[in-house]
Amino acid sequence: MLLEIKNLHVEVEDKKILNGLTLTVDKGQVAAIMGPNGSGKSTLAYVLAGKDNYHVTDGEILLNGESILEMAPDERAAKGVFLAFQYPVEVPGVATMTFLRTALNAQRKTRGEPEFSTPDFIKLVRDTSAKLGVSQEHLRRAVNVGFSGGEKKRNEILQMAILQPVLAVLDETDSGLDIDALKTVSEGVNRLRSPERSMIVITHYQRLLDYIVPDVVHVMSKGRVVKSGGKELALELEASGYAQFTDEAA
Amino acid sequence: MNADVRAIKTPAEQGLAQAFAAARDTLPGKGAVAALRENAFREFDLRGLPHRRVEEWKYTDLRALMREAVPLAGVPDAAAKARAKEAGAAFKGVDCRRLVFVDGTFVTEMSDLAPEAGLTIGSMAQALAKGDARVAAQVGKTFPNADVAVALNTALMGDGAVVHVAAGTALARPIHLVFVGGSEKPSAAFVRSLVVVENGAKAIIIESHEGGTTQVNAALELVAGDDTQVDHVKLTQGRALHVASLMVSIGARAAFNTFAFTGDASLVRNQSFIRFAGEGSHGGIRGVSLLRGKEHVDNTLQIEHAVAHCDSREQFRAVLDNESRSVFQGKIVVKPHAQKTDSKMMTRSLLLSDDAEAYNKPELEIFADDVVCGHGATAGALDPGLKFYLMSRGISDKESEALLIQAFIGETVEEIAHEGIREAVMNQAIAWLKGRA
User: Fold this and answer.
1) What is the spatial distance between Cα B170 and Cα B229, in angstroms, rounded to a whole number?
2) Cβ contact (<8 Å) for B389 and A52?
3) Is there a contact between B411 and A104 if contact means CB atoms under 8 Å apart?
4) Is B393 on the interface with A (CB under 8 A)?
5) Domain range spanning residue B94?
6) Are residue B21 and residue B151 in the same domain, yes or no?
7) Which ipTM was obtained for this model?
8) CB neighbours of B111 closer than 8 A, spacing ≥ 6?
9) How many domains does chain B have?
């Protein structure tokens, strides 16, 4: 078991968002998390990455059996947690290449691994970006500045491919994407599927799951997982909507 | 005019008066120069050190900050020169002509005086002493103003650089004026430099100030002729009470840029008086200040568009940690006939601590009706969203901040045209950031 979340309670600005959430993700598993607006999906993503102001009032998050709750976001990243943001931020003045290299080498340093040499790093980024259709021009630009919605999401997947996390959390990676961008991004994610890597794919819609086919589907409502099943559960939801679960949870 | 005549003088004011009385007969220059000193001193004597009720000095109360006057620096001895040897190291990667001033005195044996066609270099003290007509005619005329710190400099000016670049000359290398304190005793240096770049010439002037001199009052008059390209970069570091006045007159169709970098400096006031005196010129007036501890850095501008068809860009950034304080005052005056003036001023402060203070005061005085002038000011903390994004990728707290700070000042540093100087300035900033960790 890679990730084990036990009875997690989280407050944001004194508002309870997660309410005893329990969830496990096996090594190599792709778990989809679906649920209506406000069910706490994005909060879960942020809590996993260690964002400030998300107060865990009870419960536990174990990664490979180790609690990550006291770890800063950069320590979690070095342990292999990666969050693909729903809204990747623009970082003016920081070139994408500098950013990628600083991040990769910082993680390696924390793990006690040697830093990448410049030629090796450039080769790695070139090869990876070519597969994702990220242009050299984008790599020279400041992180996400002036990128379209699709380009930003592609840049997230590029970072994930470079950083090689053990747990990738994809927060509504499909939002704001047209069908072509959705395909490119999904292909990028699928290439990263591996027995060594688990993924949590957060989405509102079944559509993304046609491209990234999950091993399991969890449905969240009111800050907890209310139903789990196989990939067919997503199709069921598409047909019947979330109402049954919100009622069930109530 | 603030005519507050005060009967009671502060110890510093009394000390300065005594210093002037003791030195007036030995300070370089007779006749017109001596008269200039006397007039300037009278101005100081009448008004005293500028204080918080003088609008231009509101946030840098020199009367309160300058508790005492220290003795005028003497001629540096061998030990002082030895201590000054490594000065100006920030630019050692740039191929420059170094002119070294220790405790305000020009030290020729430490300077690069290799002849170059079209370039004349000299000592201000010597020029004043021997009555150099060209120097005497220009000193105090570049941008006449009523500032008391300038008056004090004029009254007590000792040595400095006199640089003349003949018409049509493109200097092979930047000139680096290295001002360094070498004395171990408290001392005050009043340096005055004059740089004249004749029509069609190109020059890069670097000014660096560092070291132990307790009080520095530096003034630089810079005359950029028609069709010139002049870049000026000033680096200020060290523990001195440092007041610097830059007075510039820009001719027609010229390009003038100045950049003030201040980092790890206790108390700095950079005041720039810049006049567009010929049509069709461009000016870039920029600066970056990095402050921590209880440091205080003030960049005050008075930009005068006296003629039509000129544009100016004023861009200042300050990064403040701990209990530091930054001041930016930018006054842009557009005279009645200066139509088609295009001026944009922007100042931004990044506050890294709750106790830091940034004062930003843009001022526009526009007397012409067909101009484009704008200004903006921001002050704020690092964006926590950006920081989280970087940290979520494995970059540490401090390194994330350093990247974001570097990006914040980078936009302004990027405007330095000379690659080597730009890198040297950025390296100073990076060294400052490393000092935070």
Assistant:
1) 9
2) no
3) no
4) yes
5) 11-278
6) yes
7) 0.96
8) B98, B99, B100
9) 2
